[in-house]
Amino acid sequence: MPSLPRLRRTVAGLTLAGVAATVGLTASTSTADSPNPVTPGNMVGYGFDQCEAPSQAAMTAWLTSSPFRAVGIYMSGALRFCQAQTNLTPTWVQTQLATGWRLLPIHLGAQASCTTRARYQNDKISADPTNAYAAARTQGRNEANVAVTAARNLGIVAQSTIYYDLEAFNAGIASCRSSSLWFLSAWSRQLHKLGYVSGVYSSALSGIKILDDARVTPGNTATLPDQIWIADWNNVADPNSSFVRPDGWVGHRIHQYQGGHNETWGGVSINIDRNYLDLSGVAAPPPPPPPATSTTSDKLSDPKCTPASINRPAYGLTAPRTRTSLVVPLQCLLKQQGLFTRPVSGTWNPATTAAVKGWQARVHHPVQRAFTQSDWTSLLAAGNSATVLSAGVRNPDVVRVQRALNAALSADLRITGGYNRKTQRSVVAYQKRVGIKPTGVVATLTWRALSRGRR
Known about the structure:
The chain contains 13 helices and eight strands. By secondary structure, the protein is of the alpha/beta class.
């Protein structure tokens, strides 16, 4: 986890209504009387974490300019970094969730009994093995109680995930390893009892290792977390680590792949760690390129699947003998969704029919052999639907919108990944067509309409 953040620029704070106006949310997206959504929920994409919850101005700047859509926050715990957390309030939480951020609440309490870090020496997990590490288990339950109280006070609702931060330790010491395992087991059990999802952040070589080893140990009775957050700074933006078995927590992983460094988006610099999230609940498609630049591409598993083969000015009704030139992008995109498992051939075959019907059933469209413009719109818009897009933004989510508009409107947009004037005009036209306030900004309601294939 990162050191103290260093902001090079500060801007006056914004109210929830002000942020909603800035990013183009309608009044119905969130109100003071409506409950916050579960966080982080299902998500595949990039996130960051830092010591201090960023200012509202920083969060707004990064929402509209960065590729990140999730943010880790030190919510609670006696040993958490940045104890003051002046920005972290119920209003801050509500604002971020309303505008599309996914929050990763972090609790940093007692640390492993063998930790050598000076600041952790007065709050360590008991290594007493009596009664199957009863003292450690009691500590784990108590930490969960504290974390849930803090979460509720901030408006982080039940079914959200809370991540225990167990910093690196020597997993080769048996008592340290066992006490940590039973501590984390009690943490997970108590979170479940209180209605929350259990997550654990730790080094791939210590905390994550003991959990992964317990997972494959016959007769293991420890309760394992629902999600793991792997600290493995290998600079590879995917959910994997060479130190973790590939079959564990598939679709329930976060990988912290780069440690503390400054990044600047929207004119605001923050010291962050980078993370890649696969919280899809299923095996996810290969991740997009790391957000080091504003370029976009499709990193699919078939050589025929490239941006050039997928990008089209329009996507019309496609069937075995109708618009066969669209079969390649159709197979590529269905492959990305895990529905088409054969090599991409460009020829409509039984596997294509099965994949087409699988997608239509998934999005509650009429199940048939042909793929309609509504089907295309929903498929091309598929993915994280919490990103707010407006003029000047450049990221992979704009590619999804441009393609989906070419399906919904035959808009003839050039797929650039840049939210230009023509894209904005097409968004306005689409919003008018489906009865959404024509703001020219893609936010919750517009994403929802596109994802449902409305046209």
